[in-house]
Each structure stands twice: as C-alpha cells, then as structure tokens.
Amino acid sequence: MLGSNISANIEASRKDLLDLGLRNPLLNHRLSRARGVEIVGELPAEVFRIIVRDRKSMRFKATLEDSENPSAESDPSKLLTQPGEEPSPKKASSSHTDIYLQTNSTPEKLQSRLRKTENDARTFIEEQGTNTLYLALGMLN
Are 105 and 39 in contact, with CB atoms under 8 Å apart? Predict the structure, then answer.
C-alpha cells in the first residue's frame, strides 16, 4: 500500500518536470527574427560526419537571393528517410560534402543573426553558467 503511494507520487513528480507545453523550445521551436540560423539544402548525416567524425569546423554560407521560405518539394534533402533506408553516400553532392552550411539568408542578415546568437549565448554562459547554444539536425514540421 505504501509502495504504490510512493510510486504514484514519483510518477506525478516526473510528469511535472516534463514540460510538454508551448513554452518548451525543444518541442515548439520557432526561429527568432533576430537570432538563430536555418540551414537549408544539407544532409544531416553529412553534417554529422563532417563535424563529429571528421572533427572539422563548418562555416555558414549566405544565399544571394532573399528567399524566406524554400519549399520542401524543391529541396530533396528535406524529404524524410523511409524506415529501413539508410542515407546513401551516393546521394550526397559536392555541396553536401563541403564545409559550408547553406542558409536562406542574405549576407547582411546572416551576419546580424550570427552576431546576435553569439552575444546571447555568451551572455547566458556568463550569467547562468550553462551553454545553451546547440545545433539541431533535422526538424519535424
């Protein structure tokens, strides 16, 4: 009897710790107007390989046109991999294996966003002592 009451209290506390609401930025991500960069036209497996396995640094590459919303239909890298299908290295073109992360931002907008993101991350580390800067490979829309 006492054990089931403790289990129920632990389960209730666990549910309180997990924020499934709209305030959780890991579940409800929205790109800010001032910070953060959306990477387009890249294969997450290739980005992971370059950064983690090859231990190389990558750079951001701005676009020349001001295209706010590229469609998933015109971008094959935004299509989901089917169950049981491994990402094939044959699908990776030279733009996927270089050290440049393609964005949909103009050079001026990209610089502004990167500076704001860096300043916010540095301020948070200095004030809170934790690093909140992260890279998400793949988002489910």
Answer: no
Q: Residue 36 in contact with residue 118, Cβ under 8 Å?
A: no
Where is 102: in which H helix or E strand? strand 100-102
Q: How many residues does the chain have?
A: 141
Q: Please determine, for residue 19, whether its predicted confidence score (pLDDT) is greater than 60.
A: yes
Strand partners, 65: none
Query: pLDDT digits over 50-104, tens only?
Result: 999 999 999 999 987 644 444 444 444 444 455 555 555 545 677 788 899 999 8
Domain-by-domain residue ranges, the chain?
Answer: 33-128
Are the C-beta atoms of residues 50 and 56 closer than 8 Å to each other? Answer: yes
How many other CB atoms sit within 10 Å of the CB of residue 78? Answer: 16
Q: Maximum distance among all alpha carbons in the chain? A: 68
- pTM beyond 0.70: no
